[in-house]
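Worked example

This section walks through a single chain of length 368. The input is the sequence exactly as stored; nothing has been trimmed or padded.
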Amino acid sequence: MVRTLGKDRLLLRKACMKGTRQTILQKIEDAVNKVDGHNIIWIRGSPGVGKSALAASISTRLQDQGRRVIPFRFDRTESTRITTEALWRVVACDLARWYPSLRQHLAKGMEGHILSDIDRLFKSLIETPSSTLDHDIPHEQLPMIVIDALDGCGGLRHDDSGRKDHDVLLRTLKHWALVDHLQKFKLVITSWPEDNVTRMFPDSISTHINIPSGSDVRLGDSTSDDIRAFLESCFKGMGMEESWIEKALDYLVRGAAGIFIWATTVANFLRMDPRGRFDILQTRNNTEGLDELYSLYSTVVRESFGGIIEERDPEGHLFNRCNNFCEAATRRRCAYHASWSQDEEFTHNAIDPKGSYVRHRFWPHPPF
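Given that input, the structure is written out below as tokens.
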């Protein structure tokens, strides 16, 4: 019965490239190991800065040290299955696997119909059973939880049920931060720096670890150096000579401005024709923030889709048009809107002969 609790879970995404993000990973590890520190550690930053990779890396890093880690990841495209209820069931399942004494309490907590009330479920499966654990467990042996992509809870469009699930997620996490006997268990979360999360987790009850991007990133700092190392590894793998690599890095690292998804998209885009496509990238108008990401994506789309994209198509509209299609395609619902019926040529060009979607090839990131 306990085993069925943890059936709905997703693996964390790919970890950071070896040797990169060491400064920020050490900061996270220090917060986890601080015995008298806050038990909520919030890794926050703009879309694409590498929060998911950091979540995977810190999980692996701590597991390699012998720590017990419960990883969990939300996903907008799996919102009917990967829910707040699924999260706390997974946590309860893993705790019971490590601490058999909890199983009788979980069995009792699962009696009755409590599935529709997540607050009661949290109390029955997490709060009450965990209160029976030995209070003398050494800090370094205590289990910890890593929850990636809080902003993915609630689905792609955050309808009423999605908003309710997101709200109850924040409420139960806040409860975790405030209940006395749960405060010894560290919980690492990642999300965008949204106002509602900031209000729920002020720095008085949580440790904030900000991932810089945009104007907060400078050439020569650790974030830029990590992006440089990533791109350099990619270009060497393409067999490019040192002089070209140095020229490309000088231009691209500045453009990335700390956005790792920008760097990943560039690397994937250049792979087919590094010299030719790098020349194309250099013809773009340099912008900042999300405008820079839109500009990059529109360049990728124009190059990939050929003449079916009008030259005057605004970049934001072009990106949204393609991303909306890819969102539907990823969910195996290519006819998600009736409007796609008049976009047959767009649809045909969006899918390569092997059936891989362009978004997966160039920008492997959930919809913004």
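What to look for: Residues 99 and 133 are 8 Å apart (CA to CA).
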